[in-house]
Amino acid sequence: MAGDTRMNFFEEQDRARRNTWRLLGLLTLTVVVLVSVTSAALIYILGGDLGADHAIVGKVGAVVVGVVVLGWAYKTIQLRTGGHAVAQRLGGRLIDLDPSAERERTLLAVVEEMAIASGMPVPSVYVLDDDAINAFAAGYSPNDAVLGVTRGALDYLSREELQGVIAHEFSHIFHGDMRLNMRLVSALHGILLPGLIGRFLASSGEHASHAIARRRNLNDSPVVFVILLGVCLMVLGYAGTVCGRLIKAAINRQREYLADASAVRYTRNLDGLLGALKRISGFSGSVLRARRAAEYSHLYFSQGVPMAFGGWLDTHPAIEQRIRRLQPAWNGSLDGYRQGHGMLMGGALVEGFTGIARSLSHIGEPEAPELADAQATLAALPADLARAAHQTSGALALLYGLMLGADNATRERRSAWLGDRLEPEVRQWLSILERSFGNLDPRARLPLLELSFPALRRLSAARHRQLAADMRGLMANEGRVQLLEWTLLRIVERNLVRRRKLPQTLRALTDFETEIATLLAAVARAGSMGPVDQAAAFVEGWAMLPFGECRLDDVPPDILKRMDHAMRRLERLKPLQKPRLLKALARCIEHDGQVNVAEGELFRAVANILDCPMPPLLDTASGR
What pLDDT does residue 8 have? Predict the structure, then answer.
């Protein structure tokens, strides 16, 4: 299959996982060094001997490590809602799903185009009330990602410049940087917490000074020990701050260069990202005024917090260096970028044509043809369906409508089963959308689902669980599970319904032979081929995997329970092992020499479940 050299997405995912261990190692080394220095200083102040008083080192170490872990855990709990927590703590405002302001509508359109082009749910979008030009992506996975954009970016960037900034942030989502950055926030809070506690302990000494004065041997006073411990913890906290910023700089700078390069590749428009960087340098700047801006400094598109020491602690490369990486012949001129001009429409996209091979090779790396296809898809959506996707009740009706089926008999049967389970507003929307569902292009089903997620996320957790239960009920009521409907259910559950996480230990393909056989058999049986061709397609896909002989008849028919178990287990597959599985599935689908809409939609849905956002399959016959 062509395009193997472009499987960078999986390498970047693996790199992000290894960087998590690197982060843990750096933090552990930082804590050990700080504990050692603080303990030695404390022993010296108390007049002890370093060799004889090694017990103090253990006690201080235990206290510091305990405080660091406590701070880490506290911040992790505080950020449990993912990117929403970050945006809210920075003072962000969740923009309306159908905003009246033209600039916010343009922002949503750019975000929706990029999400649909890459095959991932549309993230929620916040606007920060700040004149600086900046943006960020926050969250633990593409399913809970949030984008934040400053008012300055909306006011001063053209559409193509804004598109370059958004593409840069999507790169951080695709390549695992966003998750690593969230973990870094929690870990560094743990290092800073000893300094805050130390400040409290040191200040408490003022209230106990009269007790200290009555003692002849100050070294025997527990109050003196507490005060000195507080001072040492304060020093540790300040040193930890410097070390934390060095860790941010070490991990983050190179990732910014790579995100810039990815943004240009996604949009195939160098001028867009270059214009945004030059406008930051020449006019507005990127330093944020938010009170908690420093806590999240490594998340931003550009340097959001000024640093001392001549830029050694900067979390981002200098703007001029980033510009020269993209435009080596740049002479330093900022003519035309020293004032804002408001949002403009622009940024032509080139057209391109290909099929499943291209989409597979562009996982996590959409380019201009995918963006052009996404724009065409959004423009072709029936107006009432697009409007429904931006309303909470309408988005629910949209999802129920997709589950009711295509033929009239199935829709009537499933509608009767739903009965009074739906709220009146949802039933009303279903009635309005009925005709549009009948004329809906099958290729628009996944884009509509992705488009509706920002509205669906605004519903309560209980309503999310009810939605998933209703979807399961609709499938169970038919007696036979359609794999496409099951994939819609799994995408909804993965994005909306919280569930107990499996252990995080990642495993190789060889540990999932039964699960992969179940999945491959389901894909083979889902096509329009006859039994003989289905069996041959299964064998052809299976031959690409590191297992012994297996036939389609050896795998029991796919049922909901077996598929649920298989996919939940396969979520633990190592990143670099996923391309081989996806290629085997693609080979199975392509056995008859064609990929119909249902097969392509199913393939993309399975890739989404495996955390591999896959761009749409561009149709060479139709020019899309």
Answer: 58
Domain containing 534: what range? 509-609
Please, are residues 390 and 438 in contact by the beta-carbon 8 Å criterion?
no
Separation between Cα atoms, residue 376 and residue 382, nearest integer Å: 12
Is 502 a member of any domain? no
Report pLDDT digits (tens) over 382-441.
Answer: 899 999 999 999 999 999 998 887 677 888 888 888 888 899 999 999 999 988 887 787
Least confident of 85-89, 351-355, 574-578: 351-355
pLDDT in tens, 461-496: 999 999 999 998 888 766 555 777 887 888 888 888
Q: Is residue 99 part of a domain?
A: yes
Give the DSSP H/E element, type plus range, for residue 442. Answer: none
Domain boundary among the residues 449, 475, 496 is at 496
Q: Minimal CA–CA distance to 258: which of 187, 182, 161, 175?
A: 175
Same domain, 191 and 104: yes
Please name the amino acid found at residue 319. I
616: helix, coil or strand? Answer: coil
Among the listed residues 234, 293, 233, the one whose alpha carbon sits nearest the alpha carbon of residue 89: 293
Q: Does the active-site annotation cover 434? A: no
Helix (H, G, I), strand (E, B) or coil at 426: helix
On whether both 122 and 244 belong to a single domain, the answer is yes
Instruction: Note the pLDDT of residue 110.
Output: 94
How are beta strands 124-128 and 135-138 bridged, if at all?
unpaired
Residue 547 lies in a domain: yes
| Six-digit token string for 395 | 């988005």
Nearest Cα neighbor of 246 from 190, 309, 169, 293 is 309
> Which one from 104, 160, 169, 295 is the annotated catalytic residue?
169
Distance CA 240, CA 246 (A): 10
593, 617, 619, 620 from 623: Cα distances, Å? 19, 11, 6, 5
pTM: 0.74
pLDDT single digits (tens) 550-574: 999 888 876 667 888 888 888 888 8
